[in-house]
Amino acid sequence: MRIYLAGPDVFLPDAAAMAVAKKAICERHGATGVFPTDLAADAGEAPDRFMRIYLGNEAHMRACDALVANLTPFRGPSADAGTVYELGFMRALGRPIYGYANTAEPFRERTLAFLGPAARQRADGDWTDAEGLHLEDFGLHDNLMIDGGILAAGGRLITRQVPAERRWSDLEGFEACVVALCQGGRAAS
């Protein structure tokens, strides 16, 4: 099984080391990990660097059997936008998708903390931002389309509260996803 390793890990200062670590975990469980920065044979040609990266990642996803996404909040209360795109892409291809996040705090609470004093509670108890826009509150880890897409694909979202200094390096949730995926979704969270 080839697993696309989605996530903002490509932005880490030690992204290459993270790729090696995640691929080793996949190999230990009988799978092949494909990191976004790996060279893609069927990527196609493009004059712009960003487009070459996009085409390479799309080629990787099409060549993979499943996806495991790092959904740890990135530069805000929600998961990395590129990772969420990749998750939706694989869902549309009908492939299994799993996710992990190194925070267990629900989306609404993270959003309220992010907004700070700009958040306003209405008389009915709902919350809005400074523009009066309603805050999503389904008790989920992230936006309902992220959690829902994973569940609809038969996957799992594994969340763990990890100390801030290990937020980007702790791979226990990642490994739990790989184990669950390789065992057909049977591993405990």
From TrEMBL:
Q: Which residues cross the membrane?
A: none
Q: Report the domain of life of the source organism.
A: Bacteria
| The protein's name in its UniProt record | Nucleoside 2-deoxyribosyltransferase
Look up and give the organism this protein is from.
Answer: Teichococcus aerophilus
